[in-house]
Amino acid sequence: MNTFYFIAFLSIFFSVLVISAKNPVHSILYLVLTFFTFTIQYILLNAQFLAIVNFIVYMGAILVLFLYTLMLMNLNKDSEPFKSNIVKIAAVLGGGCLFVVLFACFRQVGIAEPVVLKDPGLGLVKNLGKVLFNEFLLPFEISSLLLLSAMVGAVLLATKDPKTV
Amino acid sequence: MESLTNTLHTVPLNHYILLSAIIFSIGVMGVLLRRNAIIIFMSVELMLNAVNLLLTAFSVYSGDASGQVFVFFIMALAAAEVAVGLAIIVMIYRNTNSIDINVLNRLKW
């Protein structure tokens, strides 16, 4: 049994649980598991830098942020009101149609060659750092500006306005 | 590590595309299905991750490191997006005492 198919099955299983869990906290915990399966996929692709970043940034920072926000809100059981069955069926049908269209498109393309790692050092920090700080230096600096503005924006939005309180 | 990556040689690129398409569709379904704003946000994260995995697979397939650098940028962008989005959700919760997106239909007027 190939590792890829087992991990792929697990990630699909957990992502279905993410959108179907009743309790939002369970949903976030399933999302953590889904991201962990993605980390394993990155390791299988020998993208070690991305695996570590996915592990630390996504599972460590972003999902903890989600969890904290959810716990701060203190939602009770009836926080998610009843949604009619017709809307649910329509949502599943819509997502299914999207998948069928995507699948049909990719079947037409038909790239069936196996993914072969030509250069074993491709996803290592050494190689990626060279690419990042040579070709992508300007986007890298701009992304630091983006993070700074996002931080300022988040603080501005989340603090209470002293005039209205 | 060598033996781990050797299992890769039998996986066609098709199957990576298929896996990403499935996860992406599940994310779209989550956005349409749920009314809790935080879970909708999590479904968006799921879609972003599906695309990340596909970019990495293509990067390994063609032996080009640019794809993995793009994934790095997408992760930075997702962090910024989550910070601002959760701040907005907290503000909505403070004003309406609920994170049901149907409450927000007053934005129409």
Automatic annotation (TrEMBL), chain B:
Keyword line: Cell membrane, Membrane, NAD, Quinone, Translocase, Transmembrane, Transmembrane helix, Transport
Main localization of the protein?
membrane
Catalytic activity reads:
a quinone + NADH + 5 H(+)(in) = a quinol + NAD(+) + 4 H(+)(out)
Family stated for the protein in its record: Belongs to the complex I subunit 4L family.
- Please indicate which superkingdom the organism of origin belongs to: Bacteria
Q: Which GO terms describe its molecular function?
A: NADH dehydrogenase (quinone) (non-electrogenic) activity; quinone binding
**So what EC number does this one have?**
7.1.1.-
- Which InterPro entries does its entry note? NADH_UbQ_OxRdtase_chain4L/K, NUOK/Mnh_C1-like
Annotated organism of origin: Mucilaginibacter mallensis
Q: Name a Pfam family for this protein.
A: Oxidored_q2
Name this protein carries in UniProt: NADH-quinone oxidoreductase subunit K
Q: Is Ligase given among the entry's keywords?
A: no
Which terms under GO biological process does the entry name? Answer: ATP synthesis coupled electron transport
Annotated compartments: Cell membrane; Membrane
Q: How does it assemble?
A: NDH-1 is composed of 14 different subunits. Subunits NuoA, H, J, K, L, M, N constitute the membrane sector of the complex.
For whether the record's keyword set contains Translocase, the answer is yes
Stated role: NDH-1 shuttles electrons from NADH, via FMN and iron-sulfur (Fe-S) centers, to quinones in the respiratory chain. The immediate electron acceptor for the enzyme in this species is believed to be a menaquinone. Couples the redox reaction to proton translocation (for every two electrons transferred, four hydrogen ions are translocated across the cytoplasmic membrane), and thus conserves the redox energy in a proton gradient.
Q: Where are the transmembrane segments?
A: 13-33, 40-63, 69-93
Describe its membrane topology: Multi-pass membrane protein
Please give the GO cellular component terms listed in this UniProt entry.
Answer: NADH dehydrogenase complex; plasma membrane
